[in-house]
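Structure first, sequence second, as always.
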């Protein structure tokens, strides 16, 4: 059991457009320990793994997540 919740279709489309336009996004999320994070990232790809959707990004330090 996970806390995974699919994103809305309109948000998925916004992410796809940001990837195509190479436009940065300001995102907020919680990690596995429930710590809150906010960062401006460059979206690189959307993909599915084990039935969940993921957004691959590059952060300001050029690390991919």
């Amino acid at each position: 059991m996970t806390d995974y919740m699919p994103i809305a279709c309109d948000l998925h489309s916004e992410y796809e457009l940001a990837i195509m336009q190479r436009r940065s996004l300001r995102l907020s999320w919680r990690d596995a320990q429930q710590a809150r994070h906010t960062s401006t990232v460059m979206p690189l790809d959307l993909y599915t793994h084990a039935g969940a959707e993921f957004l691959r990004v590059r952060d300001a330090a050029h690390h991919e997540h």
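Margin note: Helices lie at 9-21.
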